[in-house]
Write a structure and sequence with these properties.
This protein has two domains: 11-15 and 268-366, Alpha-Beta Complex (Aspartate Aminotransferase, domain 1), CATH 3.90.1150.10; 22-264, Aspartate Aminotransferase, domain 2. The protein is globular. It is α/β, with parallel strands linked by helices. Helix 5 runs parallel beside helix 6. The strands form four sheets. A seven-stranded mixed sheet has the order 2-10-9-8-5-3-4, sandwiched between helices. The longest helix has 21 residues, at 268-288. It has helices spanning 22-27, 38-55, 69-80, 94-105, 123-130, 153-162, 182-185, 211-218, 231-238, 250-266, 268-288, 315-326, 353-366; strands spanning 11-12, 61-66, 86-91, 109-114, 137-141, 143-144, 149-150, 166-170, 189-191, 204-209, 304-308, 328-329, 331-332, 341-345. A hairpin with an 8-residue loop joins strand 13 and strand 14 (341-345). The structure holds pyridoxal-5'-phosphate (PLP). Pyridoxal-5'-phosphate binds at residues 15-16, 68-70, 73, 95, 141, 145, 170, 172-173, 193, 202.
Amino acid sequence: MIAQFNPPQRLLLGPGPSMVPQSVLDAMGLPLLGHLDPLFVGLMEEVKGMLRTVFQTTNPMTFPVSGTGSAGMEFCFVNLIEPGDEVVIGINGVFGGRMAEVAERCGATVIRVEAEWGRIIEPEQIAQALRGRSPKLVAVVHAETSTGVLTPVQEIAQIAHNAGALMLIDTVTSLGGVPVCIDEWGIDAAYSGTQKCLSCPPGLAPVTLSSRAMEVATNRRTKVQSWYLDVNLLNGYWGSDRAYHHTAPISMNYALHEALRLTLEEGLESRWLRHQENHLLLAAKLEEMEMTLTAQAGHRLPQLNSVAVPAGYDDAEIRRRLLNDFNIEIGAGLGPLKGKTMRIGLMGESSSAENVGRLVGALKAILPA
Ligand SMILES: Cc1ncc(COP(=O)(O)O)c(C=O)c1O
């Protein structure tokens, strides 16, 4: 007989998922409704409205794609890109690389604008790549979770629009943790995930498309290659028709509803401030321990702190001891940063002075020197 699964209570201070408030977990245990039940349809409307507030947009096409953040990424590319389209993509970590991979699978010609991992994509780099070109789309990761860097996407959006391109951003780690101002910044398409600064389990990918992006998606030469992610079909489900397309993950939508409700109850500005304050607290404590943050100064994410592995220590051993002896999860460095950095997430519910204190206490016990 297989025993019922009974996980321990970990403190999640990695790159996501983050800690989830009890009321969000409880929402997942509420009675199921049919996915076309008028009460569920009412919840869908509230989720869309709250997502518009969190994304700071009036875009009607704002809803959670069923799937994780990567499904949101695919949703944006498959709907906006047709074979042969030119796309400029900023790559300064894992997720810019993933965008290029997804765009290539859509048949795009990808122009890669690369920066060292841990540094931003400079607007000037995009401006240079656009000289003499008019690509269909420019895409950049706003908050690069693999390195802890926040790229200034507003300036890049301006440059993209001047070249006649649509602007797409990845807000998986930024949404709810730092300002994301879709309309003010002129962003045409954005996707996110639920498991980072919104503090909901993973499973949905909030997306938003501007009217320009919708025009592109609805006036294509070719069919969208993914039936599941075709916005023209999804619009029939999440829009006013309410025609069956797929069965929305009911319990995940309950959870997102509660997570968004709590986010807005706290207030976006207070939430961003809380993330910043706890980042500064962590940074000060790490400095006392002579541990250094590795992301480019002035562009550090408050919700994802990339820390150099102290000389003479094995990062896998530090992470193993944090997990086994203290029930605390942090993340490893990725790609060229593997073995060199560790990633401390202070996302959403995880971002508190108490959690910073718990982690620092554990690190002091593990790194007595
Ligand atoms: C910046 C960024 N983009 C995309 C993704 C992919 O999201 P998911 O793992 O939910 O599919 C992640 C996940 O960590 C991410 O951090």
